[in-house]
Amino acid sequence: MTCPKCGATIKASMSKCAKCGLPLTYQDKVSNEEKLPLKSLLLRALAVLAAVVVTLIIIQLIEEPLRIRRQNKRITEQYVKQTVEAVTLENGMRGHALTFFGEDGDCVYIEELGESYMFVGGIARVEFPDYIWFEDDPTTIDNALITFSPVYVASTGKKTRIPVFSIKVDVPEAPVTITEPKQDRVTVITAQTGLNMNVVYGSQVIINGEDVSGKVDRSGNLSLTLNIEPIGDNNISIIVRTANHKEARRDIVFYREVMDINLEVASTVQYISRLNYMTISGKTEPGATVTVDTDYERGSLQLDQSTGKFSFRARFSAYGKNLVSFRASMEGRRDSAISFYVDYLPAKAEYTRNAWKMDYAQLRLYYEQWNGRVFLCIGKVVDSYTESGTTYAIMNVGNDADVKLVALENQSNVGRLLPGEEYALYADVAGRLFYDSNYIPYLIARYSRD
Fold first, then answer.
1. Count of beta carbons in the 10 Å neighbourhood of residue 105
2. Does domain 185-256 have CATH number 2.60.40?
3. Could you tell me which of 307, 236, 230, 311 has the C-alpha nearest to residue 277?
4. pLDDT given for residue 68 in this prediction
5. What residue segments make up the domains of the chain, in order of their start?
6. Adjacent-strand bridge partners of 386
7. pTM above 0.85, yes or no
8. Region 303-329: what's the mean pLDDT?
9. What is the CATH T-level fold of the domain 263-344, as seen in this structure?
10. What is the DSSP string of 117-182?
11. Domain at 351-448: CATH code
12. Per-residue confidence band for 119, with pLDDT thresholds at 50, 70 and 90
């Protein structure tokens, strides 16, 4: 080592410099830090540790909001794809359905509805009737823009607001379902007919200006008997008013032929028969005569000249539709006539009792003479088609090597006859149809063998 003053070489054992006499204090090479007291070392260590902790806390404070924002963005992007559709609810009311997508166990809260909806199978479906957004009598508006503010609630309790969205909701019409008649225009041959409908209980119902609300039962059903005059069109106007809905109006026309002589069928007469005969009753004007123009039991016609009431026993010679026709006559006045069909189908035991085994060769030849004859048709349906609203199933009553095709109009309880499926059906001959460049026998299936 050297003297700090003159630079002369000195030894560790010297107390002063031999050249300049500078007093020397010897220090070994152990650093002062290593000779510091233990307490000072601990304090320094604690200070370093505190600095590290503070740094970690600062990082966490910065990172946590970023993580939350990233998580919220992921949830928002993943589950914001809700769908909206207009629906008809089970009670017949118009409404909307909102579908959200999320994780099972989580839920979505709709502030405007005040309800939470759980995700099941990754889907939460929300349905509501449209009328809840409108006043009691919404006559001054046609629609409203409804804004929804959904909140995604995780199973952990974490809440994430999904972006708001809006849908346009029209003011719904008062619910009304006409169950009878089925069409808006109906031809009738009776002086009275039924009108059946369903509305919301508590609704006001007005028919041709008459308030009949008191006749609506607690299920919302209304059944009325209307008088139908022989004047042609009988117009029936129906108005229904329901709270939170706009007024609904339905118009039905019951057509009854204009008659010079009043003639009507009793409302008790049915249009379906299990028997090959039926008693037909009605009423005409006193003094008129009644003539039956279709098949009936001779001697069964009875007419009370003082009241105009009459009856006779009609006979049915074919399965299915049978025409019944009769007229009233008076001297100096134009005849009045009524015609309608009765659907005759005996019970299965009677219908199948005399069924024939399929004789395809003879059936193709004698389809006209055998009209109405019952055959048991067993085979596979190979095709089907619809023409003029009627569906025909093409059945092979033979086999793959010997194809024998028949056309079946299915009126049995089997339902739709599916190509590729095998069936055993009792059917009566109705003629023939042109199929695949050939005429084939045509039958109407009434019952299945099973």
1. 11
2. yes
3. 311
4. 54
5. 44-79, 80-170, 185-256, 263-344, 351-448
6. 391
7. no
8. 95
9. Immunoglobulin-like (2.60.40)
10. EE-BTTEEEEEEEGGGGS-SS--S-SEEEEEE-EEEE-TTS-EEEPPPEEEEEEPPBPPEEEEESS
11. 2.40.50.140
12. very high
